[in-house]
């Protein structure tokens, strides 16, 4: 293969990757609303999640950051769950808590199921 053809193929591959990345970023960017997380998706917190957030000192902005920027824990996730895949993401919050959020990624909403501080054990009375 000539050098010119190789360069052309590399440029096409990079262009495809850039297009996919841009599409992904636009689809999953925050809309700026407090109640909307993904475009067209409302962010809903279960009663259990609100209780866990309170006793584990995690606020809504930290949960949004976990959803946006956390690393998927595939062992704790169930991407085949119907009708909404269950996703678990982990990362350090701004106040250095190593935390996990578990949420259902439904077609029209994201439902936060629970949040966990993986470094500390809190006594929560959530039912």
How would you explain this protein's 3D organization?
The chain is α+β, with helices and mostly antiparallel strands and 127 residues long. It folds into 2 domains: 30 residues; 95 residues, YaeB-like fold (2-Layer Sandwich), CATH 3.30.2310. Helices cover 35% and strands 24% of the residues. It contains 3 helices and 5 strands. Strands 1-5-4-3-2 form a 5-stranded mixed beta sheet. The chain starts with a helix and ends in a 10-residue tail after the last strand.
CATH topology of the largest domain: YaeB-like fold
What integer is the average pLDDT? 82
End-to-end distance:
65 Å
Poorly predicted sequence stretches spanning 5 or more consecutive residues = 26-39
Shape descriptor reads elongated
Q: Determine the fraction of residues in helical runs and give it as a percent range.
A: 25-40%
- What is the top-level CATH class of the largest domain? Alpha Beta
Assign the structural class, choosing from mainly alpha, mainly beta, alpha/beta, alpha+beta, or little secondary structure: alpha+beta
Sequence of secondary-structure elements = HEHHEEEE
Provide the gyration radius in Å: 19 Å
Fraction of residues in β-strands: 15-25%
Describe the main β-sheet briefly. 5 strands, mixed
Q: Give a count of the beta strands, DSSP E runs of length 2 or more.
A: 5
Physical arrangement of strands within the biggest beta sheet:
1-5-4-3-2
Number of domains: 2
């Amino acid at each position: 293969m000539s050098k010119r053809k190789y360069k052309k193929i590399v440029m096409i591959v990079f262009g495809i990757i850039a297009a996919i990345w841009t599409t992904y970023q636009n689809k999953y960017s925050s809309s700026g609303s407090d109640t909307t997380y993904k475009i067209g998706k409302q962010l809903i917190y279960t009663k259990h999640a609100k209780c866990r957030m309170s006793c584990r000192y995690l606020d809504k902005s930290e949960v949004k950051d976990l959803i946006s920027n956390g690393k998927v824990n595939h062992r704790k996730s169930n991407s085949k769950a119907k009708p909404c895949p269950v996703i678990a993401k982990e990362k350090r919050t701004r106040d250095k808590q190593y935390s996990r959020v578990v949420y259902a990624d439904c077609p029209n909403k994201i439902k936060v199921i629970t949040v966990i501080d993986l470094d500390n054990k809190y006594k929560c009375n959530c039912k």
